[in-house]
Amino acid sequence: MDENRVEIDWASARETNLRNWNERVPMHVEGYELQKFDDPEYVSDVVADDLVALLPFLPAQSLRGRDLCHLQCHIGTDTVSLARAGARVTGVDFSAPALRAAKTLAERLGVDATWIESDVLDARAAVTGEFDVVYTSIGTIGWLHDLDRWATQIVALLRPGGTFYIRDGHPALFALDEFSETLTTRYAYFGDGRALEWDQESSYAGEGTLVNTRTYEWPHSLSEIFGALLRAGLRILHFDEGTTIPWQFSSRMVEVPHGFAWPEAERNLIPCTYTIVARRD
Q: Which segments constitute the Methyltransferase type domain (predicted)?
């Protein structure tokens, strides 16, 4: 069923999404529980999980002293967490209010970070230098229409021998009807260039009602994701699929450590996330 699949040009969709994400910032500043970062040892649950998967593929299994570029960093909670793990961090996001919130958080915590306002699809032109690690995680590439362009930015940002890491919601999960009482497919798994149009007054974190309620996302199959990375010249080192996700995709999901999962009887029926580690040779 494609009732919310629409034709829209990238510039219009991007501008609509930007208004929505700008408006979410104060809601997320409240909803992300930033006071937890007052503990100097605290890192976000997202980064705590990601480090388990990423570090085995880094020299000395550590981010210590590594230059890291965090694409689509939003308000910087994961970027700050990566800095606490030892990286020299640069956060990139298209939302100026989000970056102001990120900078405020980092300065309050005494974390050294560089913040760059740019679309991820133009990141190479906006960001100075090369990086040992390019990182992106959770709720990211569905907002992008062109994964080939995305992958070429990643390769151009990486030093030779550098590592790319992504964990995100699984496209099989995103094809499910989030309101169904069973695991029922509703949305397209494969992309065809059209966007999925959404109209929601709330966000996944924080309280309040949005004025800019409309957003656009694009479905990307695993084959499309892998194909873009491989065509750009990256070598795949690791692939995994997980049964938990950091937000409640469906009201039927139950809370588990570091996120949400389907009820136990259904947990092994469908993946919720995927993880890819790749390298620029």
A: 71-164
